[in-house]
């Protein structure tokens, strides 16, 4: 009585769970890195926009 | 309003050494940990499926022990990290420990779920049922639910909310009390679950050396995997917190 079906199911659940978690983690890491890049770009652009009128006002 | 404090790099003692070790792991996590974890996990599969002898009474299905027991140890380790980091959140008021605690809690919940699933699949042919409301199984399910609730509560609050981090830290510390209860449950109550084979007391039943060596190899593999997952997850949390901080700065800048 080896119950190979249960053995296979146990290993399958274990590895599927681990791989699913790793794939999700990789996708999440990529997503937050992209978010940080976009926010940094927007912040830099916003700082440029606020600096430009001040410089113009200083010249006039 | 949130406050993020930086830990002192030269804090001495055992905690300082632990901090330096964690910092080193962060530096290594893309170069050293993946190949080492891969090799260790391959050794675990080969050990469990090929090297370990067939158990005389339970047959081949007993090989589930080589993933079930290490999953439990991995969950204990991950929740141990949550416990220590939660203490550090309360002591140092450093939100980076909160990121590690949240990361480790996710990994702990994952391994608790895998432990429960593999245990149910092992229990069905041996006990005749997937589930029984005995002390070991019920306290393990409780551990899963406690930390799932921790993650849910923490996900509802801002990553940089220091007050939410402190309340969560207190909750996580109290929730960790379930781990020794799980460990002692088979001694304190009559259960279907067998007696401990890893954290044994003198006089307890022992596995044959050939099985014990494969089990230890599997435990080393899965503990390395747990370390890598905690490091990756904590980094994700840390970058997520940075995104939240940037968003707040941008809102203020665009609001002016």
Note down, in words, how this protein is organized.
- The complex is a heterodimer of chains A (60) and B (256).
- Chain A has a domain at 23-54.
- Chain A is 93% helix and 0% strand.
- Chain A has one helix spanning 4-59.
- In chain B, α2 (33-51) runs antiparallel to α8 (209-255) and α3 (65-92) runs antiparallel to α4.
- The radius of gyration of chain B is 20 Å and the shape is globular.
Give the secondary structure arrangement, pairings included.
The complex is a heterodimer of chains A (60) and B (256).
Chain A: H1 4-59
Chain B: H1 13-28, H2 33-51, H3 65-92, H4 95-127, H5 135-156, H6 162-175, H7 178-188, H8 209-255
Helix pairs in contact in B: 2-8, 3-4, 3-6, 3-8, 4-5, 4-8, 5-6, 5-7
Largest interface: A-B, 29 and 35 residues
Radius of gyration of chain A: 26 Å
Shape of chain A: rod-shaped
Report the count of strand segments of chain A. 0
CATH domain fold name of chain B: Four Helix Bundle (Hemerythrin (Met), subunit A)
- Spans of at least 5 consecutive residues with low confidence of chain B: 1-11
H/I helix tally of chain B: 8
């Amino acid at each position: 009585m080896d119950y190979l079906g249960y053995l296979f199911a146990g290993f399958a659940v274990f590895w599927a769970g681990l791989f699913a978690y790793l794939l999700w983690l990789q996708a999440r890491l990529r997503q937050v890195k992209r978010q940080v890049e976009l926010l940094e770009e927007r912040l830099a652009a916003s700082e440029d926009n606020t600096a430009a009128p001040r410089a113009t006002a200083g010249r006039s | 309003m949130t406050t993020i404090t930086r830990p002192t790099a030269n804090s001495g003692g055992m905690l300082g050494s632990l901090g330096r070790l964690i910092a080193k792991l962060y530096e290594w996590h893309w170069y050293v940990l993946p190949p080492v974890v891969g090799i260790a996990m391959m050794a675990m599969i080969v050990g469990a499926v090929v090297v370990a002898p067939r158990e005389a009474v339970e047959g081949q299905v007993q090989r589930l022990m080589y993933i079930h027991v290490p999953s439990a140890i991995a969950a204990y380790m991950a929740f141990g990290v949550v416990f220590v980091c939660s203490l550090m959140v309360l002591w140092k008021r450093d939100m980076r420990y909160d990121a590690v605690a949240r990361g480790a809690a996710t990994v702990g919940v994952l391994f608790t779920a895998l432990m429960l699933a593999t245990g149910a699949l092992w229990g069905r042919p041996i006990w005749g049922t997937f589930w029984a409301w005995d002390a070991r199984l019920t306290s393990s399910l409780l551990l899963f639910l406690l930390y799932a609730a921790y993650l849910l509560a923490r996900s509802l609050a801002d990553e940089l909310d220091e007050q939410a981090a402190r309340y969560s830290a207190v909750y996580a510390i109290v929730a960790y009390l379930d781990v020794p209860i799980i460990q002692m449950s088979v001694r304190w109550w009559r259960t279907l679950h067998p007696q401990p084979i890893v954290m044994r007391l003198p006089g307890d039943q022992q596995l044959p050396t050939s099985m014990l060596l494969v089990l230890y190899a599997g435990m080393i593999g899965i503990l390395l995997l747990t370390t890598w997952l905690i490091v990756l997850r904590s980094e994700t949390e840390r970058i997520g917190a940075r995104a939240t901080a940037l968003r707040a700065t941008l809102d203020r800048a665009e609001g002016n």
